[in-house]
Write a sequence for this structure.
């Protein structure tokens, strides 16, 4: 058994200068299974294409493959932005949203207290910035 680790971007760069070997066939298959010539390619690559076609026709397997692909793309997006940077940006956005919601909740609480003390609605509106309709709903 042999194990090859191939960096596809590097392979693409030198693809034309490399002889047409079994390894090239596999890499071509990985890049685009549709370009494999069914009459000329080796048996293993043809079997892999047949299995890929069978999997593609099974709805559940196709769904699982799509989920795997989405997961990989999500991981690349997180890594591309820098994990710490992406995490920090998410935290900052969540913090800002939380502050906005907290301020809105505080305005509503103040308006409820003032309304309970029978303060005029126009004064409540001026103090909280809430609309008259929002105050009446409280």
């Amino acid at each position: 058994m042999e194990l090859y680790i191939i960096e596809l971007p590097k392979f693409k760069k030198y693809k034309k200068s490399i002889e047409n070997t079994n390894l090239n066939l596999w890499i071509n298959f990985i890049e685009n299974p549709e370009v494999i010539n069914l009459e000329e390619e080796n048996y293993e690559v043809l079997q892999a294409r047949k299995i890929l076609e069978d999997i593609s026709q099974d709805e559940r397997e196709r769904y699982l493959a799509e989920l795997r692909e989405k997961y990989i793309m999500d991981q690349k997006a997180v890594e591309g932005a820098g994990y710490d940077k992406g995490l920090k940006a998410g935290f900052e956005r969540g913090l800002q949203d939380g502050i906005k919601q907290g301020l809105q909740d505080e305005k509503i609480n103040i308006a409820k207290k003032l309304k309970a003390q029978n303060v005029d609605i126009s004064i409540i509106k001026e103090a909280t910035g809430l609309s008259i309709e929002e105050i009446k709903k409280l």
